Amino acid sequence: MNNSETKYDVYTYGRSSIDLYSNNIGSPFEEIKEFGAFVGGSPLNIAVGARRLGLKSALLSAVGNDMVGKFLLNFLKKEDVETKFIPTKDGARTSAVILGIEPPDNFPLVYYRDNCADSKFNIDDVIKANIANTRLIEFSATALNIEPSRSAAFFAAEQARDNNVPILIDLDFRADQWHDPRAFGVTTRAFLNYATLAIGTEEEILATMLKDPSQISIKNQQISAPEITGNVEDAIQQILKTGVEILVVKRGDKGSSYYLQDGIRVDVPGFPVEVVNILGAGDAFAAGFIFGFLNGWDWFKCCRMANACGAILVTKHGCANFNPTYDEVMELIEKNGGF
């Protein structure tokens, strides 16, 4: 490593976008009258969340030569997230997402990612980022769905392993970004062989181990959203067999659970809050977990921190723009009995 370079706490790898959130909370999607413009994309959200907690973060993504890309970069620079590893890809467009908000349990979203810039992130871009220069690298599994970002992610993972940099994979299953949900499973299982840490919901865990097409059903015919069925506990054990040290399962208002190689499962309680919007809560969760991990905390404390970050975010309108600060998270934890 070049000692003259800045040492980062965390790199996050993958998608970045402008997020247009409904300002008409509770309105059905087709009746939305107004949107608020925010930023999003899981790795971007995590980079911002980690920075607000006090970590030095950098985003490994890409933008198009367009005003939306300038919108993202402007926000990140104001947040003091490192942007020098975000190339501009001529001929591609910065990604966009449109989101509805119908609490407590309906949050429809539509992705616009055809020819999106962050999918053009390549091996040369990884080399420029110098993976040895970070304490941890986090990957979004959506970045594995298409070339060249897929091979670049595997290359970055090789670089991380060669330099003893811990790898966290967020299983981040977005069905409409894959030509077949089983392709998500095959590709993500291959990547897990590099990972040190893994985070996901029960659905994402089932999707990761998906092999049998009979496990796929359509729960919403209008938008062809697949529902993945199966035995979650079996899927968890299969993921642990890939060699990850810990698998953290996000359980919404129930908090989270973590599973270790030796068969230990520990449930970590969440925080009682009133839900406005759950989108982005998992990314705030990941930022909190990364903060704890890099500070040498035990697994329970890491997950408790993560639960608090996610709980704060579900009370807000959007994702990255509303990530909590360290003081805000500590205040919530202390009000609810501490760690």
Could you give the topology of this structure?
Blueprint: E1 10-13, E2 17-22, E3 35-40, H1 42-53, E4 57-60, E5 63-64, H2 67-78, E6 88-89, E7 95-99, E8 109-112, H3 123-129, E9 137-140, H4 149-162, E10 167-170, H5 181-192, E11 197-201, H6 202-208, E12 216-220, E13 225-228, H7 232-240, E14 246-250, E15 256-260, E16 265-268, H8 281-294, H9 299-313, H10 326-335
Parallel strand pairs: 1-4, 1-9, 2-7, 5-6, 9-10, 10-11, 11-14
Antiparallel strand pairs: 2-3, 7-8, 12-13, 14-15, 15-16
Helix pairs in contact: 1-8, 3-4, 6-7, 8-9, 9-10
- Give the mean pLDDT: 93
Shape: globular
Portion in helices: 25-40%
Largest sheet: number of strands, sense, barrel closure: 8 strands, mixed
CATH topology (level 3) name: UDP-N-acetylmuramoyl-L-alanine:D-glutamate ligase
Give the total of domains.
1
The spatial strand order of the largest sheet comes to 4-1-9-10-11-14-15-16
How would you characterize the overall build of this protein?
This protein has 339 residues and is α/β, with parallel strands linked by helices. The protein has a single domain (10-335), classed as UDP-N-acetylmuramoyl-L-alanine:D-glutamate ligase. Helices cover 33% and strands 20% of the residues. Strands 4-1-9-10-11-14-15-16 form an eight-stranded mixed beta sheet, sandwiched between helices. A four-stranded mixed beta sheet has the order 3-2-7-8. A two-stranded parallel sheet has the order 5-6. Strand 5 (63-64), helix 2 and strand 6 (88-89) form a beta-alpha-beta unit. Helix 8 (281-294) packs antiparallel against helix 9 (299-313) and helix 9 packs across helix 10 (326-335).
